[in-house]
Write a structure and sequence with these properties.
By secondary structure, this protein is an all-alpha fold. It has helices spanning about 5-20, 25-30, 35-45, 50-60.
Length: about 70
């Protein structure tokens, strides 16, 4: 694995999802988006701010609002 910022983000997201027992399907259900979009975001193929905000909310308990789930 390369030592780049994206790789570190990907590793951190996967660690948090494992620690809190969250699946891509769980995130998709909560955000009302496709599970494919969530998986592609985690893999780095797509950008979806709402997934990052959801993970931050689950990890730190900070309530965050998302205007558009596709962003």
């Amino acid at each position: 694995m390369m030592n780049c910022a994206f790789c570190k983000k990907k590793l951190l997201i996967k660690f948090i999802m494992t620690y809190y027992n969250i699946t891509a399907a769980d995130i998709a259900r909560e955000l009302n988006v496709s599970a494919s979009l969530v998986r592609k975001h985690i893999d780095g193929d797509r950008e979806c701010k709402s997934v990052d905000l959801y993970i931050i909310h689950k990890c730190f308990g900070i309530p965050l609002e998302v205007e558009n789930a596709a962003n």
